Every structure is written in structure tokens, then in C-alpha cells.
């Protein structure tokens, strides 16, 4: 299948509010894989911190022998390592946070539903600072931040356009912005 045919099939699927299989990589990008890696690192950290840094059984036996000799109460493994378990909650909390991010992206890919925001696209052209554009649902502007970038604003959220989308979005006509429902990631822009 040629790239033009694949793009036409993706545009048709997007107009119908569905994610085309060729667009999965826009959602399962580097951010997704980094969050998966951080989930694995957080779980490993939460498990390994108490195991590797905690008091071992030989230390526990010696401490209990000394405490028994002095007439003090015996110590348990938990009482010696409670600070490490508290410390292990931090990587576990990070793993839960990044797991939520990865799960959201995966749910959007599996669900395949997309939001279509159609409307007249106003083009502000090259500007020195981002316009407010409160009356337009969709608008374009170009700004120079060391190099020139083109932004599409959909319902108040700004998206920097890559080279492919920049060539497809034209101001002064009706366009449809295709967004994921939860993460609000810009997947495609098609002429409506």
C-alpha cells in the first residue's frame, strides 16, 4: 500500500472517529515507552530497596542475642527496616503514576475512538506573540522561537505541527482536528 493510499485510508477512518492502525505509533511513541520503563524501574526499586539495604537475618539474630542478654525486648525485621519500607513507597508511587500514563495511552489505542473537532480555521499568519483567538475554535499561527514553528490551536489547547501536518492544514477553510478523547493528543487534521 502506498503512502498516499494509507493516508487516504487514515483520513477516512479519522473522519468516522476511528483510529487507523497506521496511527498507533502516534500514541505509543517514546513517551509511552519511557513511562513503561519507569514503571518497571519503580517496581524494581520498591522491591529491591528493602531487600538489598535492609538488615539481614544474621544481624537480626545478633541484635536479639544482645537484647536477650541485656533483658530488653526482642526486635523484629519490620522494626529494624521500617524506614526503608517508607523509602520504598516513593518509587512505588512513581510507578503507579507512570503506570497510569501508560495505561491511558494503551486504552486509547485499544478503544480506537477519536474526537473530531470541525470548524473554520482562522490563520493569523506570522505573529510576535501567541494570539488569544477566543472567538475561534480552530486557528493557526506561526511564531519564531529561534526557528519558525506553526501552531494549531484547538479549543484553547495549542499543538505544534510537524512538517507533514503543516502541509495539510490550510487557514481560511473548514478543517477537522482529530484528537484522542482522554489525552487530547493531535492525531491528524483533515479537510472537512
Q: Can you summarize this structure?
A:
The chain has 192 residues and is an alpha+beta fold. It is 50% helix and 24% strand. The model has no long low-confidence stretch (mean pLDDT 87).
What is this structure's SSE topology?
Elements: H1 3-15, H2 24-27, H3 30-53, H4 57-70, H5 77-111, E1 115-127, E2 138-145, E3 147-154, E4 157-160, H6 163-168, E5 173-179, E6 186-191
Parallel strand pairs: 1-2
Antiparallel strand pairs: 1-5, 2-3, 3-4, 5-6
Helix pairs in contact: 3-5
Describe the structure.
There is one protein chain. It is built from 6 helices and 6 strands. The protein has helices spanning 3-15, 24-27, 30-53, 57-70, 77-111, 163-168; strands spanning 115-127, 138-145, 147-154, 157-160, 173-179, 186-191. Helix 3 packs antiparallel against helix 5. The longest helix is centred in the middle third of the chain and has 35 residues, at 77-111. It is elongated, with a radius of gyration of 27 Å. It starts with a helix and ends with a strand. The mean pLDDT is 87.
Amino acid at each position: 500500500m502506498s503512502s498516499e493510499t494509507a493516508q487516504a485510508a487514515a483520513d477516512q477512518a479519522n473522519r468516522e472517529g476511528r483510529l487507523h492502525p497506521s496511527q498507533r505509533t502516534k500514541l505509543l511513541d517514546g513517551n509511552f515507552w519511557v513511562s513503561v520503563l519507569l514503571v518497571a524501574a519503580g517496581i524494581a526499586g520498591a522491591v529491591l530497596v528493602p531487600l538489598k539495604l535492609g538488615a539481614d537475618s544474621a544481624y537480626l539474630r545478633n541484635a536479639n542475642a544482645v537484647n536477650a542478654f541485656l533483658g530488653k525486648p526482642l526486635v523484629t525485621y519490620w522494626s529494624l527496616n521500617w524506614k526503608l519500607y517508607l523509602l520504598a513507597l516513593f518509587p512505588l508511587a512513581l510507578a503507579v503514576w507512570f503506570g497510569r500514563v501508560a495505561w491511558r495511552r494503551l486504552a486509547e489505542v485499544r478503544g480506537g475512538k477519536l474526537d473530531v473537532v470541525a470548524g473554520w480555521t482562522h490563520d493569523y499568519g506570522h505573529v510576535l506573540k501567541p494570539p488569544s483567538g477566543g472567538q475561534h475554535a480552530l486557528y493557526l499561527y506561526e511564531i519564531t522561537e529561534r526557528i519558525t514553528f506553526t501552531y494549531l490551536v484547538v479549543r484553547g489547547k495549542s499543538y505544534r505541527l510537524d512538517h507533514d501536518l503543516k502541509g495539510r492544514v490550510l487557514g481560511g477553510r473548514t478543517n477537522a482536528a482529530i484528537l484522542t478523547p482522554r489525552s487530547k493528543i493531535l492525531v491528524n487534521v483533515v479537510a472537512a
